[in-house]
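Quick question, first post here. What does this chain look like in 3D?
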Amino acid sequence: MDSKNSYGTGSLLLAAVGGALVGAGVAMLLAPKSGRETRQQLADYYQGAKSTVGRVPKALKNAGHAVGETFKEEE
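> Answer (accepted):
Ran it through. Tokens below.
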């Protein structure tokens, strides 16, 4: 396989996520709802996603501490 034309897993994952987001956006725009309802739904989704993403660093930190404690106990 030619390494110049191969795509990494990260690129493939990014393309899949990007496609899913574009597809979701198009589906929402074409949904049989009023503009106000669609904008409210998008705003609610954005706030939920923002809240979830905001918790990720703390969750990763806690997971790192848990892994560190596990390795300390095994020694």
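The first helix runs from residue 9 to 30.
The chain has two helices and no strands.
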